[in-house]
Write a structure and sequence with these properties.
- The protein has 353 residues and is mostly helical.
- Helix content is 50%, strand content 6%.
- The protein has 15 helices and four strands.
- Strand 1 and strand 2 form a beta hairpin.
- The radius of gyration is 28 Å and the shape is elongated.
Amino acid sequence: MEMCCILEVDVNGLETFLVDKNIMASFSSRLDRLFGKKSGVVNGKLKVIFHDFPGGSEGFELMSRFCYSNGKVEINPHSIVLLNHEARFMELYCNKAASNQNLEERTENSFKGIDYWSCSCYPCSSIDSVKSNGFHMAWWFEDLMFLEIDWLDKIVRAMVSKEHDHFATSRFLLYYQKSKSIGAMVIEKCRILEGSINLLSLVDRDLSTISCKCLFELLCLGLRCSISIGHKELLESLIGSRFDQAMVDHLLIQSPWGKKYAYDVYLIIRIIKAFLHKGDELPVGQLKKVGHLIDSYIGEVAADLHVKPMMFEELVSILPEAVRDSHDSQYRAIYIYVEVPYLDSKFSKLHIE
């Protein structure tokens, strides 16, 4: 019979555990490989240090209970995510263990039944710490930060299907995207951003959970890290649905690399088209606000000598006549534009009535 061997485990520098090395290694392929090489011996003692163990000391205690109970652990909505992440982190599918002790497989199978969980199972059932008058981190935000974007996608979709507080969920998604991107590689940043955009589009059904400013910030970030065309179009559609909330500063987005004109006018034209997509359903008040916004933007664009007549004409003509009580701002912008020297006479190339 193999003698007990005490293993000292430092979990994220916060707490130290003393466990039976043989029991833990029989369930963890990661520990089994480590001790198979006789590593981690300090002054005759075995010691391992984890700097990023999922769930910290609470997570390690949960994993220890799994190992010490010979693979018996309750998998419920409150523990399933952490157990799954631990299973992958510690490789809790050791070949020595029986098939019913494969924790990763068991949590994956349990998660398939997420649609049948009761509403009380989700962390969003208590979100009093999220206030509508500002950004406050709810108590559960940090608890979900260890999730990879693919697992987060499943969790958020389930939360949306249960109609949990969409404002809190959108705040979390913005917090997740920003926090997880710190120090990440460009490809990973792009993957996190695209996943967050997908989920934000599901949460923002009533157009009140995400500000236009936040969406423009995500769009600028997406343009820098080259997100897919589909995700750009999704953001443009989200912005277009609340374009009347935008300010002219939001529209001054740098033109694509290699273009001489200062601002990405065609991007704004696409967003305006997304705004106009509702057609007759648009309230007059929203139309007039956007008309004033675009007139201010045209004034910024007019002085750019690299803006071509076709581009300028489309921008000036894109909104219906009814959105303006006065055309004075338009006329001033057109006057500035035709006065800026640019190859041939630009006025002769304009067809604005």
